[in-house]
Amino acid sequence: MKHAAIDCLSSFQNSLSLNRSKHLLILGTGIAGLYLVGQIYVSYKKAQRRKKWASVEKNMVILHQFERGKFTPNVSPFPLKLETYLRMTGIPYENEFEEPMGPKGKTPWITLNGDEIADSQLCMELLARKFHKDCSSHLSPEEQAIARSFHIMAEEHLYWGLLLWRWVYTKGRTLWQVQCNLPKSLSLMLPLVVKKLKGQAQGQGMGLHTEAEVIEMSVKDLRAISSFLGTKQFLMGDKAIEADCAVFGILSQLLWNCPGSPFEQLLNGEFNNLKAYCERMKDTFWPDWDRCLNPARI
Ligand SMILES: N[C@@H](CCC(=O)N[C@@H](CS)C(=O)NCC(=O)O)C(=O)O
Hints:
mainly alpha; 10 helices; 3 domains; Glutaredoxin; elongated; Glutathione S-transferase Yfyf (Class Pi), Chain A, domain 2; binds glutathione
């Protein structure tokens, strides 16, 4: 009798665990299937977009970037730099906002005659060669070296002050003040984004300093650019060059897209020649600036 009960119990347990394994197997297969279908759909959409981009006229640049910002056409310095360059040189281009992240995992990037090129600077250098555009040819090698130093200081040093202020010190919250229609999922993902960008800043080195130290270093960069610019129209004189696109990309973010920051305050005060410079770059290359904002200011 006792044995029969034990046999019965153990066969019940066996069938339970068999059932559980079966359910787990079905669930696992279902999830894997859904994932596969999702991946196939993503690849299909990607291929469709590339087909569309390949059908544009020859030598038309497709500039991939984030959606327009509220106060600047882009809330990232690098797409703004590249689009300003395209305008400065008159190279024909079209904007594309569906796939802002390029083959190197960053924005912006371009498609040109079916080729994909990442990195704003590499794009500019390739376009300069292809379309025979050299906006700095009137400068001496020494002047070109100075322009390069300011360009690199802005993008490889001051940029990290911007990144840390926007993503670490204010935890990405100001993004909602400067960009409309952000995906809802971004609020949920925000801590992960902040962690990733903080990691990048630490890897670069700037993120290892205290906030006060980083702000002080950034102010020194701003002072250097302000002193060098002085009363000149553009970085190297009356004519804007490639380095102006890079410097403008960063300064415009600090001026218009960092509400409540020390940068905003300084650009409206001690360094107001940099504010005038941003306005000048905007007026010269972006006569349609207001229409390139989201929402457009008409
Ligand atoms: N050197 C690159 C920098 C581009 C870059 O850092 N883009 C940022 C936006 S400001 C980005 O895509 N970050 C995303 C990430 O790092 O995951 C260029 O000039 O294009």
